[in-house]
Every structure is written in C-alpha cells, then in structure tokens.
Amino acid sequence: MRPLTPFFLLCYMHTTESPNRFTMPTVGTSSSGQFSCATATQRTLRDLRTKRKGQPLFVMGHVLNRRGLEAAFEVFNDRLAVVKFSDGAVLGYDPLELLLPTDIDEQGIPYFEIRHCPRCEQLFNLTLDECDAEEEPTACPDCRT
Ligand SMILES: [Zn+2]
Predict the structure, then answer these.
(1) Ligand 1 centre and the CA of 96: distance in Å?
(2) Which of 40, 95, 111, 144 sits in a 20 to 30 Å window from 129, CA-based?
(3) Domain assignment of residue 82, given as a range
C-alpha cells in the first residue's frame, strides 16, 4: 500500500462527496443511458466517437482552481471542448484533459474513481472493471505498457 499523497486524498474526498453536490444537466438529453463511461479503450472525451451534450466529465487541465472538478460537455469550439461547471462557469479544454466517469448510476449520477499515477504524475480514471478488480491498477494506462 502506497502512502496517501495530498492530491490523492483530495481526489478521494472529491469522489466520495460528488454524488451529493453534482447536479446532472437536463438540457439536450432525455436519459443518462446515453452518456459514456470509461473503458479500456475509451478514457477521455477525445476517445468518444459521439460526444453528447451533458456528458459528465472530470476536468484535469490547465486552470488550477478548476482542476479536479466535475463538469458537463457542452459543445466543440474550434478544437476545444467547451464544458460547463456546476457554478455556471464555461471553459474550453483539450478533450484529452477531460476524463470519463467510472460509472453512472440509474439516477444519472456520475461516479469518478480518479487515481494519481506515481510514474508520470498524471491523474487517470479507473474503468468499472478495474474498480471492481481485486487489485486495482496503480499506474495509468500509458505507464502500464
Ligand atoms: Zn502514468
């Protein structure tokens, strides 16, 4: 077991708190079943072939005070994915910086299991399978190979 870093702790708290404070956007889609979760081959917004408005995302990115927050995909503007935060703020990100949720429950509440890769210092998301596995991966997909 590796020691908890402050960042990891932050993510952990974020993950456990998120079901209560994240409100799902209702515009554009009728059901949460249309949104995508992380899989072995699809982990960021960039990997999604169909990017639906309202898709829940975990923001990494360059804006420090928005890092680690959840947001919903709005639209593409040039090459940037424009996302909306729960406080109404709207910002553009590289789709690579937007992680898909680990799971979305029947109520449409997204769950993000975000981990910190000790090798490349990047955050990465777990797929539901990885989350349920007896031993979850300790390194990000890029560092595992
Ligand atoms: Zn890594």
Answers:
(1) 14
(2) 95
(3) 33-112
